[in-house]
Amino acid sequence: MSELTFVALGSNLGDRQSHLAFAREQLALLPDTELVAASGVEETAPLGSVPQGPYLNQMVLLRTVLSPRALLEACFVIERARGRVRGARWGPRTLDLDIVRYGDAAIAEPDLVVPHPEVDRRPFWQRELQELMPHARPD
Question: Helices marked H in the chain — which ranges?
Fold first, then answer.
């Protein structure tokens, strides 16, 4: 059975627009996955205390049969393909992909928490979710 899944995209290093476009393309190519809709792109100030440039952010709505774990692993592969190196928490990055929601699932594992624990503290994610909600129709 497929699940409606919201994935946040962010980039603040290099060609930010290109990194987001690459992520959208790669997510759409995942097996048994359809990119249903994408929010607009917006520029936001970085979060946390690490000095860095502004981010471009966007959210996509996927319909997928991949498990949350398989989707997370696929996101890591996509990030690494754009040069993502996991360093300082809240630090700059070429590409960051976060599973914000995965259907109605509630997951609490050390490296996978769904719904994403920051969803209520990121106004830009709230705006992007609202923009995508009209497209979130069940099968």
Answer: 16-28, 68-81, 123-132
Q: What is the pLDDT of residues 118-128, one digit of tens each?
A: 999 999 999 99
Q: Which of 98, 101, 111, 127 is catalytic?
A: 98
pLDDT for position 74: 98
For each of the domains in the chain, give its residue range(s) and CATH number, in order of start. Answer: 3-135 (3.30.70.560)
Residue 89: both structure tokens together? 């928490």
| pTM of the model as a whole | 0.95
When pLDDT is cut at 50, 70 and 90, the band that residue 85 belongs to is: confident
* Active-site entry in 93, 121, 127, 139: 93
On the question of pLDDT at 64 being above 90, the answer is yes
Report CA-CA distances (Å) from 91 to 5, 13, 67, 79: 25, 10, 28, 14
15 catalytic per annotation = no
Task: Give the Cβ contact number of residue 94 at 10 Å.
Answer: 21
Active site residue 104: no
